[in-house]
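ping. complex inputs:
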Amino acid sequence: MKNSFSYWEQESFLNGFDVLIVGSGIVGLSAALSLKSQSPRLKIGVLEAGFLPGGASTKNAGFACFGSISELIEELKIGSEDEIAELIELRWKGLKKLRENLGDKAISFEQYGGYEVFKTTEADFANTCNEQIPYFNKLIGSIIGKTDIYAVNNDKIADFGMNGITNLIRNKYEGQIDTGKMMKALLSKVQGMGITVFNNCQVQKIESNSNDQLLITNQGKFQTRSIILATNALSKELIPDLDVIPGRGQVLITEPIPGLKIKGSFHYNRGYTYFRNIDDRILLGGGRDLDFEAEQTLEPGITDIIQTYLEKLLFETILPEQKVKIEHRWSGVMGFGKELKPIVKKIRPGLYCAVRCNGMGVAMGSLLGEQVAELIEI
Ligand SMILES: Cc1cc2nc3c(=O)[nH]c(=O)nc-3n(C[C@H](O)[C@H](O)[C@H](O)COP(=O)(O)OP(=O)(O)OC[C@H]3O[C@@H](n4cnc5c(N)ncnc54)[C@H](O)[C@@H]3O)c2cc1C
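pong. complex structure:
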């Protein structure tokens, strides 16, 4: 520890925390927001390793969704009907909370609807999914209070100008947000409430005493009464016992496309591939299933195998015969585990966590932040 801080820095910035949150993603910032709203007197800080929020919250696709039919069918192979219903509820309520916390304008929330697309070559798979629509409308209807959620909507295919798509399932309650605006709004709300967010501050170790928690960081030591870990894919580096496995997602975005016909959030291949309109561009991502092993990494980066797949889908199916440039590519890392359920719990006295959104943290992150805040005993 360098310990070259002045008296003033120590007194005003560094000392006397009631709660320190590790990670300034959607979960960490939502936890800070909930805690401060519940108990305005608490001194709360957020320690973030990145120059910007460094995790999936600023890298994602901005789908405000709760599951496409084929994705839910896959999830039912891992969890029971009750467990999947619970997950859908977390996503639905989480989105409601996100919109309440920040307001639709601040996050550019648009309910253009979601669409699951099936290629002509996938007719059997499409039929299986179509047959499951009544089942999922009933299951999800009991959660969200609407029964007309999914419907086959093949009349709409021609409007989007795609090639080789012959089955389309619409989810009329799905929306999209501007991820960058959402994170900026969340940060500024949290900071406006008097919560300090420390960037370039990586927690390397946590030491617990009977009353205090000590966080050893690259900037020095912080002391607090309670800690919330909202460290997502990186959680195992601090708490090795947590079942959190990284899964990288790669994304590309095109240049602006005059007269773009695609509007909405689109799912393909069991949720592994997704695309949407944003600012007259197409954002397209996914393909992790092509190379699970290589994508189980914490390293940022893009690979030929996945980028080639995304480009092929873009130019052959989504924007056929259009000469469009890809302007930018990036990746982000999600936190997965053996179970689909996120981990929100007390690890030991004074140490709590809310991690592992399983690729749906835009949807459930605000609620998980609130849930972990409610666990804190102060
Ligand atoms: C490409 C991609 C597309 C996605 N699309 C969607 C989507 O459309 N809809 C949806 O609902 N979800 C989507 N997700 C998932 C969603 O983005 C995540 O589930 C969500 O952002 C997780 O939020 P979080 O706060 O738990 O974690 P993160 O945003 O990952 O935040 C964790 C933070 O902790 C910090 N940190 C970690 N370790 C330390 C440490 N030791 N010290 C200090 N700081 C630390 C990290 O720097 C990071 O900022 C997508 C994810 C990716 C990668």
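Residues 245-336 form a domain with the D-Amino Acid Oxidase; Chain A, domain 2 fold (CATH 3.30.9.10).
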